[in-house]
């Protein structure tokens, strides 16, 4: 994806963003980073014809529309791929029973066609337009990953099925055990790479312990290097569980076209954050676009200026600006990106913007 334009969504009144292989959003609390990241979840639900169910569960259209339904009643967007040759756009209007798609367009090799039927859900799944197949592949991959919940009843403690839960990694990590089991069975080289990556920040970790039950269900269990005891997810620290999930997400053999994640550094040791930065770069080199929001100065210190987008809220609307290495070069000879951000030389993304 090369470009995205969003209008009327949450704090985003009107924003156009050129996207790169790595896109790291930095900004103060409430600036709109998470709103931008959540928009891709919105698109995924739109594609899956679950948009109005999703909106209802999020509190209704008043919570989705910019400044509420009294200020605006439409959301529109435009996505471009392959330098504008392919694209997808839509205009959605709030009605009595949720959103209605007033317009839904596919662009293929520069030609645009409206495929809308003015329905409450998207029509892209059912069109025979030549460009649909390409766009559908991208929309299916738009999932906002979050591994924040690591408590005693977290998704990591649940059972997953070694037949049904192996096709892609779930957003909350619930199928971590089944997905990792599948990789062990089908790609031992990648499996061993993931194990070694986990051991680099958790040296006591030996391996996963896979024991499917009669229903072919499995849960996260593991063994350490110093005993014969089989441990569960609750025996791992919060940061270690998250790092295991991140390792699987970024090192899996068949990466999605896009990885979208909010605050992946949460609870990680500085050494693990360094590893995370390496995994992000490695994934981008394997043709996987990465979009993430962070407040970690440690994480952004591993990236170039062009990888970073500052996010600010000005007069109630979110503004995005990509940093430019050339403009900052006179400072970067003596300071890091983090230094410049802390010193307000990079003024975007600051609480007092």
Q: What average pLDDT do the residues reach?
A: 89
**What letter string, H or E per element, gives the SSE order?**
EEEHHHEEEEHEEHHEEEEHEHEHEEHH
The CATH class of the largest domain, by name, is Alpha Beta
Largest sheet: 6 strands, antiparallel
Briefly note the structural class of the backbone: alpha+beta
Beta strands, count? 17
Poorly predicted sequence stretches spanning 5 or more consecutive residues? none
Radius of gyration: 21 Å
Q: Please give the count of helices.
A: 11
CATH level-two architecture of the largest domain: 3-Layer(aba) Sandwich
Instruction: Please tell me what the overall shape is.
Output: globular
Order of strands, main sheet, comes to 2-1-4-5-6-7
Explain the overall architecture:
The protein is built from 11 helices and 17 strands. The chain is an alpha+beta fold and 353 residues long. It has 2 domains: 1-143 and 256-353, 3-Layer(aba) Sandwich (Rossmann fold); 150-255, no CATH class. The strands form 4 sheets. The chain has a 6-stranded antiparallel sheet with strand order 2-1-4-5-6-7. Strands 8-14-15-3-16-17 form a 6-stranded mixed sheet. A 3-stranded antiparallel sheet has the order 10-12-13. β4 (74-81) and β5 form a beta hairpin. The mean pLDDT is 89. This is AAA family ATPase. Residues 22-301 form the ATPase AAA-type core domain. One of its GO terms (molecular function) is ATP hydrolysis activity. It comes from Arachidicoccus ginsenosidivorans.
Short account of what is shown:
This protein is an alpha+beta fold.
